[in-house]
């Protein structure tokens, strides 16, 4: 079965939820366990780089490794289901085994994964907290890219990437909030 164009995963560390999107439509929402204070889950834009069935032990029944530099981070099942919903891991994103088994076939190598800090009670989440004084928020629309957004606001692409902690400018999706920095 062909995967819908534009599918992506959004992980909100505040709500401890993982959302799976096809295009701009949220298809599934799952509770997750994320990194504890001493070993937080890194925020940013990544992609799935490896998928493993039955990795075993604490990784549960499925592993989807992420392109996070400097570590071996992933989305995986767990042998400790009571940890779901908490700040409990060494930085990985834990799911109930039945949830990761449902998500696994929908996700391909290269699927974008956005990990955000999030906020309480907000559908649209500002990735980096409050923008600086005079900064604006731009909500990405279908078909937009960061080059066009930078041109629209007459800002430098590298400044846009740095402000929003985006490592790959090709990984954005509709509904994502982008902070448009003001020049000092």
Automatic annotation (TrEMBL):
Do you know which InterPro entries this protein is assigned to? LD-transpeptidase (IPR050979), LD_TPept_cat_dom (IPR005490), LysM (IPR018392), LysM_dom_sf (IPR036779), Transpep_catalytic_dom (IPR038063)
CDD domains per the record? LysM (cd00118), YkuD_like (cd16913)
Active-site residues, Swiss-Prot/TrEMBL: 76, 92
Pathway linked to the protein: Cell wall biogenesis; peptidoglycan biosynthesis
SUPFAM superfamilies named in the record: L,D-transpeptidase catalytic domain-like, LysM domain
User: Which keywords are on file for this protein?
Assistant: Cell shape, Cell wall biogenesis/degradation, Glycosyltransferase, Hydrolase, Peptidoglycan synthesis, Transferase
L,D-TPase catalytic domain ranges (all copies)? 7-116
Share an example GO biological-process annotation for this protein. Answer: peptidoglycan-protein cross-linking
One Pfam family recorded for the sequence: LysM
GO MF assignments:
glycosyltransferase activity; peptidoglycan L,D-transpeptidase activity
Looking at the record, the residues that make up the LysM domain are: 136-180
Q: Name one GO cellular component term.
A: extracellular region
Q: Carries keyword Transmembrane helix?
A: no
SMART domains reported for this sequence: LysM (SM00257)
Q: What is its EC number?
A: 2.-.-.-
PANTHER family reported for this sequence: L,D-TRANSPEPTIDASE, L,D-TRANSPEPTIDASE ERFK_SRFK-RELATED
User: Could you say which protein family the record assigns here?
Assistant: Belongs to the YkuD family.
Q: What is this protein called?
A: Putative L,D-transpeptidase YkuD
Please report the organism this UniProt entry assigns to the protein.
Pelotomaculum propionicicum
Q: What is the lineage of its organism?
A: Bacteria, Bacillati, Bacillota, Clostridia, Eubacteriales
Q: Which gene encodes it?
A: ykuD_2
């Amino acid at each position: 079965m062909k995967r819908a164009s534009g599918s992506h995963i959004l992980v909100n560390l505040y709500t401890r939820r993982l959302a799976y999107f096809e295009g701009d439509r949220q298809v599934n929402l799952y509770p997750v366990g994320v990194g504890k204070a001493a070993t937080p889950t890194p925020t940013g834009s990544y992609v799935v780089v490896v998928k493993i069935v039955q990795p075993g032990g604490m990784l549960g029944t499925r592993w989807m490794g992420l392109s996070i530099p400097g570590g071996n981070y992933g989305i995986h099942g767990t042998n400790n289901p009571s940890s779901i919903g908490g700040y409990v891991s060494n930085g990985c994103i834990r799911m109930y085994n039945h949830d990761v088994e449902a998500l696994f076939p929908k996700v391909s190598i290269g699927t974008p994964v956005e990990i955000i800090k999030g906020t309480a009670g907000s559908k649209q989440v500002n990735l980096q907290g409050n923008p600086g004084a005079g900064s604006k928020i731009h909500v990405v629309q279908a078909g937009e890219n960061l080059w066009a957004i930078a041109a629209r606001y007459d800002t430098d692409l590298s400044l846009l990437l740095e402000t929003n902690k985006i490592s790959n400018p090709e990984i954005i999706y509709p509904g994502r909030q982008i902070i448009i920095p003001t020049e000092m």
